[in-house]
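User: Hand in any protein.

Assistant:
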Amino acid sequence: MICPECAHEWSPNAANEAHAITAIKDSNGNLLADGDTVSVIKDLNVKGSSSVVKVGTRVKNIRLVDGDHDIDCKIDGIGAMKLKSIFVKQSLMCLAKLVLFSIFTSGIWFPAFASTPVWKVEKDGSHIFIGGTVHLLTPADFPLPEAFDVADQQSDKIIFEANSDDMATPEFMLSMMQSLSYPKGQNLKLALSAETYQTLSRYCEERNIPIETLLPFKAGMVSMMLSMTELQKLGFTSEGVDTFYNQKAKQDKKPIAVLETVEQQLTFISNMARGQEDDLIIYTLKEMETLPQQMD
């Protein structure tokens, strides 16, 4: 069996060996599980043949395994192979199943809430709202869809991904710099292949970004910095939905809760693509090419 990206080979029998699997996440940071359906996020040439695993190819019933190539799967028309999780994203169907599982195990029904990024979950007189949010918006995005205000007015508590107030403290800024920077004697250039580094250098030169400002930081941080720079060029300079309703909740004296601590988020970003820095940087640069269309 062979990986289409780098021609890594392995024995089919190895997939049957007992082993403990650490948490494996897709390119968007979503946890993967055995049996999931994923989509390929880039064209993958199958080495040694003319076959190509096209971007968008759905791969069903994956199996997570140890190693650099951490997905064992079969692709229609090609056969058995291993993939890297950084080259796939969990399908919307799987994400929906995850949400529905959480809701139904709590005994709550999940109906759609109009044609907006807000959904209402209700049963027996109790309800919650789930809102899809973006951390940065343009001034033209305000006022927000009415559904957000309706959800806010009918909710006793607001739950965010993380506490945006904690992210604005000097202590957090210092912790972020320490967590997302390389220790003395290491830098991003040393973590990248010569080819990837040259690609990144050309990208920075074309946009007048001094590459020296990126080298002290780990790949996850650099990926975010490049994304933020491009978003700001597109006009995404205003506060996002989270910040807007965080401030409103404080004004309304409404209780606030969070799903993750800022420390947990820092740990995730710090470990993002460890050992796969080339993959993350190349993926980020390709994403920048289509970012205007994605955010339109």
Summary: The chain is about 35% helix and 15% strand. Residues 12-20, 92-114 have pLDDT under 50 and may be disordered. The two ends are 41 Å apart (CA to CA).
